Amino acid sequence: MKMKNPPHPGAIIQEALDELNVSLREFAKAMDIAPSTASRLLTEKAALTPEMAVKLAIVIGSSASVWMKLQNAHSLAAAESAVDTSKLQALRDKLTRSSIQAEAANLYDGDEVFDKLIQNLS
Fold first, then answer.
1. Domain with 17 in it: what CATH number?
2. Is 24 inside a domain boundary?
């Protein structure tokens, strides 16, 4: 099940920092990033990078994969609402359903677990 407005990872990180009573500067130091970079992430002005996801897994917890899935869910939802699809032409009718499902099965695993996780976070 898709979330309509998945949270930006920065919002989740900010909640954790508030709970831990950790300042922006303390967070930036723990992450070994510039305070300005931390600020852009926490204010949702920058997307989470894979490198920051690896650092977050150590500093805040969870796994880099979960942090990236959160970012991807947020970014995809934003794109789905922003992209004008009215002039697009579908080519998918030329693909067989089984080939699409097989490819998807190779690319994704644990989506149900991820969906439950982000439902609990929002």
1. 1.10.260.40
2. yes
- CA dist., res. 122 & res. 119, Å (int): 5
Burial of 71 (0-12, 13-18, 19+ CB in 10 A): buried
pLDDT tens track for 10-32 = 999 999 999 999 999 999 999 99
- Domain span holding position 79: 9-121
Q: Is there a domain that residue 2 lies in? A: no
Number of domains in the chain: 1
Q: pLDDT class for 59, splitting at 50, 70, 90? A: very high
Residue 1, pLDDT score: 47
- Asked whether residue 22 is domain-assigned, the answer is yes
Would the CA dihedral through 31, 33, 34, 37 be positive or negative?
A: negative
Cα–chain center distance at 69: 4
